[in-house]
C-alpha cells in the first residue's frame, strides 16, 4: 500500500458561480522512502496541490478529491483535531523563503521546542536537548548558542537548515519541500540539497520535491510529475524522462535548461505564458503554445495516456526521437 | 539593552527644551496678562499695574523671562501660581493622581476591549461579526465625547441608578490619602465598601475617556493582525499542526502588537486632552480642569509648569513604549 494516495484532487478559488480551478484532477501516489519531483513553471499549481494536501487552503478556496489517503488513514473524513496531529508530525513541509517562514519574534529554540512539545509531549530540558540534537543533525555549528538566536541573526542557508530541523523534529513519514533552495546562493543550494537527500536516506522518509530545477530532479528523484496549468501533464520514472520526454511541454522544459543551449546565442524558450482564469483554451491546455499542435488539440481535452515509463496527457505523445506520434 | 535606553534618553533632552519654548511662547501669545485679569472691570491704576508687573517679573524682556523660567525649571522650581500663591508642583502633585487613576483605567479598558475586538474582527474577516465590531468601533471613534458621556449618565446613573453621577467617592467615606489613587487608598485602608464606591465612580468616566482610544486600538489591531496572518511564518505555524487559537494568540499577536503599542502610546496624549472634557462632565478633580482654569486666569506659571509636567508624562510614556518595542521585537533590541 502506498504511503500517500491522492486521487483526482482539485482546488478551486473564487465564487461558486465563477470558480477558478487552480488545480484540476491531480492524482499522485507515493511509496515509503520514495523521492518524487514535481516540476512546472510558476502558476502551474505545484505548491497549491501540496498546500491542499496539508490542509492549508483557506476559505474561500475549496478542495475536492475522490480519495486522499495517508498511511492508510482517510484524510478527507478526518476530524480537524486528528488532522492537526497528522500535520507537522507525519507530514511536514518546508518552504521557499526560509527567512520569512520563521517567526521573527521567537528564538530558534522556542520554535523548535514548540513542535516537540505539541507532538511528542517533551517538556523543558528534554525538549531543549532534542532541539539541540536536531540542530546538530542539520549540521549547524555551535548548536547550543544557536538555540537562543533569533531568525534575523541567521543567514538564508542557516534558516533553511533550521526549517529542515523543525520539519524533521517528529521523524515525519513524508516531507514536502517547496522549492527549498530557490532563495539561496548557488553554493548553499548544493549544500542544502545534499543535506536533504542524506536526511531522506537516514530517516527513510518519502520526499516530495517541488522545484524548477530539472537538474536537481535528474540527480535525486526516483519519479517525476510535470505540472502545467493545474494539471499533471506527464509522470515518469526519472532516467526515462530525460532521455525521452513524451509530452511536448516536458520536452520544452528540458530544452530550456541553459546547459542545453551551449554555443547558441539565445536560450531555448517556450513562447507564451501559463493560461490564467480567463484565457483557458477549450481543448488541450498547452495547445496555444505547443509547437506540434493539431486540429484535435484545440477541440478535445486529452486524458493521461500510458507511456513506456509512466503517463502523458497528450493525443500525440513524442517518440524516442522526440517527434510526435500518430500524426498523419 | 542599556545603550538602547541611553540613546532613547539622549533624544528626550532636545524634546524637553522644545516643549519649554512652546509652552512659554503659547501662553504669552494670548492677549492679556495675569494682572489685567485680576483687576477685572475695575479702573486700572497705572502705578499699581506697573508695580504688580514688576513684582511678578513680567516687565522684563521675553527672552529674559524665558531664561529665568528655564533656569528655575531645570532646578526643579516651576514657580508658584499667581492666583493661589501655591507652588505649581505641589498643586500638580495634588491633582495628578486623580487624572492618573482615570487615565490608567481608561487605557486598560481601551486596550483590553480594543485588542479583543480587533482580534475577533480580524479572525472573522468579512463576516457579520467583523462588520458589526468595526462599525461599533467607527461609531465610538466619531461620537462626540460629551454627548456619549451624557447618554451613559442618563441611562446608567439616572434611569438605572447603577452608578453615581459625579465625583470620586461617596461623601460618607473618609479615606486617608496615601497614594492619591482612590482604588489603592481604599484598599490600603481595608475599607471595601469605599473601594466599591470608588470603582462605581470610576466606571463611567473611564469608559467615556477610553472610548476613542478603544476604537483606534481595535481598528489598528484588526489591520495589523490581517497583515501578519498573511505572513509566511503563519503558514509555517499551521504546517506544524498548531491549533488556530495558538497561532493567533502566540504567533500572530506578538508580531501584530508593534503598531498597536505605538498607537496605545500616542493615545496617552489624546487621553490627557480628553480628560479635560471627561473631568468637567463628571466633576473629576484632575489636572485637565486645573489647566483650563489657569489659562483663563492667564496664570503663566501654572500653564507653563502644567504643560511641561503633562508633556513630561507623555515623553515618559513614549519612552516606555520605545522600550516595549525592544521587548516585543528582538530585531530592535539587537540593533546597534
Please provide a written account of the structure.
With 328 residues, chain A is an alpha/beta fold. In chain A, 33% of the residues lie in helices and 21% in strands. Chain A contains twelve helices and 13 strands. In chain A, a hairpin with a 2-residue loop joins strand 10 and strand 11 (231-237). In chain A, helix 4 crosses helix 5 (124-137), helix 5 packs across helix 7 (156-167) and helix 7 (156-167) packs parallel to helix 8 (186-203). By secondary structure, chain B is mostly helical. Chain A binds chain B through residues 54, 56, 83-89, 92-93, 95, 97, 100-107, 114-115, 118-119, 150, 152-153, 163, 166, and chain B through 231-233, 235-243, 251, 254-255, 328-331, 334.
* Low-confidence residue ranges of chain B: none
Greatest interface: A-B, 30 and 20 residues
Helix content of chain B: over 70%
Q: Strands across the major sheet of chain A, in which order?
A: 7-8-9-3-10-11-13-12
Question: For the residues shown, what is the average pLDDT of chain B?
Answer: 85
Major pleated sheet of chain A: 8 strands, mixed
Series of secondary-structure elements of chain A, N-terminal to C-terminal: EEEHEEEHEHHHHHEHEHEEHHHEE
* Element-by-element helix/strand order of chain B: HHHHHHHHHHHHHH
**What oligomeric state best describes the polypeptide chains here?**
heterodimer
The coarse overall form of chain A would be globular
What is the number of strand segments of chain A?
A: 13
Helical stretch count of chain A? Answer: 12
Strand content of chain B: under 5%
- The proportion of strand residues of chain A reads 15-25%
Give the beta-strand count of chain B. 0
Structural class of chain B: mainly alpha
Q: Give the number of helices of chain B.
A: 14
Radius of gyration of chain B: 24 Å
Distance separating the two termini of chain B: 10 Å
Cα radius of gyration of chain A in angstroms: 21 Å
Amino acid at each position: 500500500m502506498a504511503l500517500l494516495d491522492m486521487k483526482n484532487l482539485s482546488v478551486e478559488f473564487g465564487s461558486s458561480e465563477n470558480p477558478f480551478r487552480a488545480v484540476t484532477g491531480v492524482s499522485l501516489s507515493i511509496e515509503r522512502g520514495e523521492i518524487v519531483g514535481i516540476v512546472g513553471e510558476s502558476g502551474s499549481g505545484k505548491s497549491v496541490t501540496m498546500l491542499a494536501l496539508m490542509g492549508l487552503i483557506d476559505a474561500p478556496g475549496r478542495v475536492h478529491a475522490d480519495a486522499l489517503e495517508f498511511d492508510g488513514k482517510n484524510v478527507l473524513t478526518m476530524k480537524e483535531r486528528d488532522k492537526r496531529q497528522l500535520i507537522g508530525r507525519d507530514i511536514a513541509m518546508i518552504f521557499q523563503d526560509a527567512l520569512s517562514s520563521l517567526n521573527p519574534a521567537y528564538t530558534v529554540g522556542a520554535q523548535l521546542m514548540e513542535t516537540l512539545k505539541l507532538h511528542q509531549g517533551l517538556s523543558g530540558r528534554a525538549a531543549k536537548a532534542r532541539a539541540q540534537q536536531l540542530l546538530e543533525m542539520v549540521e549547524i555549528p555551535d548548536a547550543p548558542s544557536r538555540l537562543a538566536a533569533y531568525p534575523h541573526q541567521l543567514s538564508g542557508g542557516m534558516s533553511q537548515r533550521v526549517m529542515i530541523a523543525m520539519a524533521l523534529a517528529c521523524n515525519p513519514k513524508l516531507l514536502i519541500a517547496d522549492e527549498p533552495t530557490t532563495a539561496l546562493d548557488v553554493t548553499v543550494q548544493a549544500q542544502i540539497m545534499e543535506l536533504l537527500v542524506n536526511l531522506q536516506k537516514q530517516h527513510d522518509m518519502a520526499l516530495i520535491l517541488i522545484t524548477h530545477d530539472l537538474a536537481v530532479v535528474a540527480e535525486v528523484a526516483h519519479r517525476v510529475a510535470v505540472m502545467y496549468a493545474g494539471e499533471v501533464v506527464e509522470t515518469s520514472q526519472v532516467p526515462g524522462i530525460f532521455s525521452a520526454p513524451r509530452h511536448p511541454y516536458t520536452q520544452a522544459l528540458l530544452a530550456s535548461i541553459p546547459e542545453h543551449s551551449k554555443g547558441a546565442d539565445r536560450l531555448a524558450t517556450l513562447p507564451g505564458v501559463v493560461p490564467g482564469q480567463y484565457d483557458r483554451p477549450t481543448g488541450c491546455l498547452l495547445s496555444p503554445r505547443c509547437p506540434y499542435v493539431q486540429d484535435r488539440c484545440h477541440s478535445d481535452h486529452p486524458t493521461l495516456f500510458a507511456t513506456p515509463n509512466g503517463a502523458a496527457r497528450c493525443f500525440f505523445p513524442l517518440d524516442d526521437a522526440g517527434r510526435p506520434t500518430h500524426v498523419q | 539593552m542599556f545603550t538602547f535606553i541611553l540613546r532613547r534618553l539622549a533624544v528626550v533632552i532636545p524634546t524637553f527644551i522644545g516643549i519649554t519654548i512652546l509652552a512659554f511662547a503659547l501662553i504669552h501669545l494670548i492677549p492679556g496678562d495675569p494682572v489685567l485679569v485680576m483687576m477685572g472691570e475695575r479702573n486700572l491704576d497705572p502705578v499699581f499695574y506697573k508695580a504688580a508687573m514688576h513684582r511678578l517679573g513680567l516687565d522684563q524682556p521675553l527672552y529674559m523671562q524665558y531664561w529665568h523660567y528655564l533656569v528655575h525649571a531645570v532646578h526643579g522650581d516651576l514657580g508658584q501660581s499667581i492666583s493661589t500663591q501655591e507652588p505649581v508642583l505641589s498643586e500638580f502633585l495634588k491633582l495628578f493622581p486623580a487624572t492618573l487613576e482615570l487615565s490608567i483605567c481608561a487605557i486598560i479598558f481601551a486596550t483590553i476591549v480594543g485588542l479583543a475586538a480587533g482580534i475577533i474582527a480580524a479572525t472573522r474577516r468579512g463576516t457579520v461579526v467583523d462588520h458589526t465590531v468595526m462599525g461599533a468601533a467607527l461609531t465610538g471613534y466619531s461620537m462626540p465625547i460629551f454627548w456619549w458621556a451624557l447618554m451613559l449618565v442618563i441611562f446608567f446613573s439616572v434611569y438605572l441608578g447603577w452608578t453615581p453621577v459625579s465625583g470620586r467617592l461617596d461623601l460618607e467615606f473618609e479615606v486617608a490619602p496615601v497614594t492619591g489613587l482612590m482604588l489603592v487608598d481604599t484598599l490600603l485602608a481595608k475599607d471595601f465598601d469605599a473601594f466599591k464606591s470608588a470603582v462605581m465612580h470610576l466606571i463611567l468616566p473611564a469608559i467615556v475617556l477610553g472610548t476613542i482610544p478603544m476604537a483606534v486600538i481595535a481598528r489598528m489591531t484588526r489591520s495589523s493582525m490581517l497583515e501578519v496572518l498573511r505572513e509566511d511564518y503563519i503558514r509555517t505555524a499551521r504546517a506544524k499542526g498548531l491549533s488556530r487559537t495558538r497561532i493567533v494568540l502566540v504567533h500572530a499577536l506578538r508580531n501584530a502588537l508593534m503598531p498597536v503599542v505605538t498607537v496605545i502610546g500616542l493615545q496617552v496624549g489624546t487621553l490627557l486632552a480628553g480628560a479635560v472634557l471627561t473631568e468637567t462632565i463628571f466633576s473629576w478633580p484632575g489636572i485637565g480642569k486645573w489647566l483650563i482654569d489657569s489659562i483663563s486666569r492667564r496664570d503663566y506659571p501654572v500653564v507653563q509648569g502644567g504643560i511641561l509636567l503633562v508633556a513630561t508624562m507623555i515623553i515618559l510614556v513614549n519612552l516606555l513604549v520605545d522600550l516595549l518595542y525592544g521587548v516585543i521585537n528582538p530585531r530592535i533590541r539587537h540593533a546597534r
